Amino acid sequence: GRKNLIINGGFDVWQRGTTSSGGVAGTFTADRWAHWAGDLAVSKQFDTTYGNFVRVRGNTTSPAYFTHRVELPELYQNKTITLSFFAKASTNIAVNQKVRVAHAGGDYDRDTVASFALTTSWQKFSYTIDVNGGAYSYNSSSYLEFQVISNVNMNAVDIDIAQVQAELGSVATDFEHRSYGEELALCQRYYYSEDFTPYNVGFAFNTTQITVNAIKFPVAMRVVPTITAIKPSHISTQGNWGIYYATNGWSTGYTPNFDSRTTQYIAPQFSGVGGVTNGSSYICNGWFSADAEI
């Protein structure tokens, strides 16, 4: 089996785009990575030795957090885990590390495990923790969180991070490289973005409603996802999809609902549609994102 508990620790997968900025808590950047406080600019970078890495730049004096959450924390209760990574900064700075376990009911265990002195050169850092045990209960919202940047004032400072690995045991071994295809599939369990131009067939069950054939996700998602409609490039209003009429061409003023969905597919529906014929088929066009993050 694979040893690295961190998904996308090599920062290869960026389904949401390779740059982001802002101070909204819970902003996901590289797949499976998020910042939860502070105004941060996050971008994908490349190094000939370490490959892809993430650059996190602070834009405020507010404390910054850059984190990764692992599901099913009960699997690691009373276990020893070692986290390792490479890092450097645009100026010398101390970076705190914290590990957090979220239980059902919103209870948290918080441990500040280390503080590392970053310089302008790449260094490898590691720490070992014993994950807290106890008579806890867990649900689908529980997680084991690694805060690679925790409560750090990094205004106008760039922090670069590469090859993050968490593994069972007390030894930091070499970083485990996975293929891009394998890493992407692991990421798509939590987030999937369909941003090409698919044409799907919809069927009119009456004169005002069209149900689109089920669109299957590449992999089963962690939980039933939240779906956001995204306009294709030929539509001007964000969130709208298109329906093609043989007589009049594209009508682009409709937003589907995604009430019919599971962890494996969605079946978008249009309601209040005009000019459709009961029992007829229509071409429907639209993009979407599916979010099942922790």
Provide the residue-averaged pLDDT: 93
The tally of strands reads: 23
Number of helices: 1
* Low-confidence segments: none
Strand order of the largest sheet: 1-4-5-12-7-10
Structural class: mainly beta
Report how far the terminal alpha carbons are from each other: 23 Å
Question: Helical residue percent?
Answer: under 10%
What overall form do the CA principal axes indicate? Answer: elongated
Gyration radius, to the nearest Å? 22 Å
Molecular structure report:
With 294 residues, this protein is mostly beta strands. It is 3% helix and 47% strand. The chain contains 1 helix and 23 strands. It has one helix at 180-188, and strands at 19-22, 27-28, 33-37, 40-47, 51-58, 64-70, 80-89, 93-102, 108-118, 123-130, 143-152, 158-168, 191-194, 199-204, 210-212, 215-216, 226-230, 241-245, 249-254, 265-266, 269-270, 281-285, 287-291. The strands form 5 sheets. The chain has a 6-stranded antiparallel beta sheet with strand order 1-4-5-12-7-10, with no helix packed on it. Strands 2-3-6-11-8-9 form a 6-stranded antiparallel beta sheet, with no helix packed on it. Strands 19-18-22-14-15-21 form a 6-stranded antiparallel beta sheet, with no helix packed on it. A hairpin with a 5-residue loop joins strand 8 and strand 9 (108-118).
